[in-house]
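Notes continue from the previous slide.

Worked example: a multi-chain complex. Inputs as given:
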Amino acid sequence: MGNQMTEMLKGTLEGIVLAILARRSAYGYEITAWLRDRGFSDIAEGTIYALLVRVEQRGFVDVEKVPSEKGPPRKVYSINAKGRDQLAEFWRTWTVLAERIEQLHHTDNQQDQGA
Amino acid sequence: MGNQMTEMLKGTLEGIVLAILARRSAYGYEITAWLRDRGFSDIAEGTIYALLVRVEQRGFVDVEKVPSEKGPPRKVYSINAKGRDQLAEFWRTWTVLAERIEQLHHTDNQQDQGA
DNA sequence: CCTCGCTATTAAGCGTCGCTAGCTACCGGT
DNA sequence: ACCGGTAGCTAGCGACGCTTAATAGCGAGG
């Protein structure tokens, strides 16, 4: 929807997908559907594929081609050790940023309750 | 520092600066120093100025030129009504995203405590 | 005097990211 | 034969933050 969310997803979407893959392996179409179910309905379809290509090239995931009963073969992505390191780094950065912003949010609300 | 933080700041830095201006008016150099004090030490100097130009062009802030005792005149930015609307929208988007990501964080931690 | 350093702002060019739009391809049902 | 759902790929775009360099005013020190 809003481009506000679009800009905010930059830098976080990769972490989101890695977090999903940390729970279980999945393929692009599946991840997109999963995100839509979870309320990330504003994420464009093609974005996930491009992101998966990127994380594969960086060596954060392993790929396995699996034939599908209904449609072209799926590319199933599994997070690997390097990917888990990256994910941990993502959570560290996220936590730091979220805490700082939350502090701002509180002081902001003290002045502007009508937010 | 890390480009991880750099990417995450995309979309959030504007909200951060608007939140600062919601507390009190300020000029670029001052904001940069303030951010450095508050732990946002990884934000580049020039970035804030470019951002301020942007929010001014979008009409989120009013500007007043004030002579400085030591150096060239300062451009003091004040948030206006439109800017407060934008800030409120920012907090809405931020809250939604932060909640979704936090949910992922919990389920992620259940599997991978050793992050 | 002239340079150094601090204050303060501006601008050009770069890389990364998510989005848009369109395409390929496989399969089953009508 | 056609269409819709499944599944993936890609080129080009705009937005954002970073890097780097330039400009400019002012005070202190050589």
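Summary box: The radius of gyration of chain A is 17 Å. Chain A has one domain: 3-111.
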